[in-house]
Write a structure and sequence with these properties.
The chain is of the alpha/beta class and 330 residues long. The protein folds into 2 domains: 98 residues, no CATH class; 170 residues, 3-Layer(aba) Sandwich (Rossmann fold), CATH 3.40.50. It contains 10 helices and 15 strands.
Length: 330
């Protein structure tokens, strides 16, 4: 296998060349079978030459998300990136390249998907919440799977097949860095790392058992002007009315059309990441000025924006470079 290597990190490149010296022929792009690169310019050149690209992107921060989105626009599908706060070692890059090389011993780096379980009282909007949360996570460049534990989920009616990255009637999925498990209206036991409990204002609807002290509480469909007891919920969502109805009938999540909802959902997720139980947010009912026209949302589509941060950045417009990186194994 002939590989073009261009990570912009001499130490890591030297380590990879030495480690794979007996199995890989290192060559220039025009002779390569695979290109392992971390610059958009190199990825673009490889794509234009018809060489498969494995793009090492780096940290998923704001600039990184833009880098990965541009890589996706080029047609690159094999991308190595990691959430903010995490890091990667040369072994991660080795394993990433090894996936494309025949006869190379695989390096297994166990990393179980992070599991977020959404529970709700009967018909309180748990599925609707899980769907919008999943979309927000995907927009952040997270490889998230939406798993409906119930096989009778309304999602099957809201969305048209094929159901990309959505699984029905299961408690697990193939792959993914994160699983959003919609356990609404089901008694199936589901293990999770985080629990989000959703209810509405109907006093007749109550959880049969307390969600637990570590659960993140969401109150949905709150009538405009109604105040809830202080500290009773991390996230309060006013009745979204026709905006929610149009989301369900068009298959386009509300977060696509209503930025304030997306920002609140992302804020909740950031709080979960940090363990900040003091987080509080309210999503007000949208009006004509705060919600984008439905036709614009449909035109944009519920597509997935990606993210990332490379070892060496480049901006195709300015040509600026910026170093990212990882830690070389001892």
């Amino acid at each position: 296998m002939r590989v073009c290597l261009a990570l912009g990190d001499p130490t890591t490149e030297a380590w990879l060349r030495d480690t794979l010296s007996s199995l890989v022929e290192w060559t220039d792009l025009q002779y390569a079978d695979v290109a392992l690169v971390s610059r958009l310019a190199d990825a673009k050149a490889a794509v234009e030459s018809g060489v498969p690209v494995r793009f090492v992107a780096g940290t998923l921060d704001a600039k990184g998300r833009d880098i990965v989105a541009k890589a996706r626009e080029l047609g690159v599908r094999d991308v190595l990136a990691w959430p903010e706060g995490d890091g990667a070692t040369a072994a991660h890059v080795f394993a990433f390249l090894a996936e494309a090389l025949p006869g190379v011993p695989r390096v297994q780096i166990p990393r179980a998907p992070y599991r977020v379980k959404v529970i709700s009282t009967r018909q309180s909007g748990g599925t609707f919440f899980a769907w919008n949360l999943w979309h927000v996570l995907r927009e952040q460049g997270i490889d998230a799977k939406l798993i409906s534990v119930s096989s009778a989920s309304p999602l099957a009616s809201w969305l048209a097949p094929p159901y990309r990255d959505i699984v029905f009637g299961a408690v697990q999925a193939d792959g993914g860095d994160m699983w959003v498990l919609d356990a609404s209206d089901t008694t199936v036991p589901v293990e999770a790392d985080t629990v989000i409990a959703v209810r509405d204002c109907d006093p007749a609807k109550a959880f049969s058992a307390p969600p637990g002290p570590d659960a993140w509480m969401v109150v949905n469909r709150v009538p405009a002007g109604v105040s809830l007891p202080e500290g009773s919920a991390h996230l309060v969502i006013e009745d979204l009315g026709s905006t929610a109805y149009e989301a369900m009938t068009t298959g386009t999540p509300v977060v696509v059309r209503y930025p304030a909802f997306a920002e609140a959902m992302l804020g909740l997720w950031r709080a979960i990441e940090k363990g900040d139980q003091g987080f509080r947010a309210v999503v007000l009912a949208p009006d004509m000025e705060t919600a984008a026209p439905m036709e614009d949302a449909i035109a944009r589509g519920p597509g997935v924006g990606e993210s990332s941060d490379g070892f060496v950045f480049d901006d195709e417009a300015t040509g600026d470079n910026e170093d990212g990186g990882f830690v070389l194994d001892d």
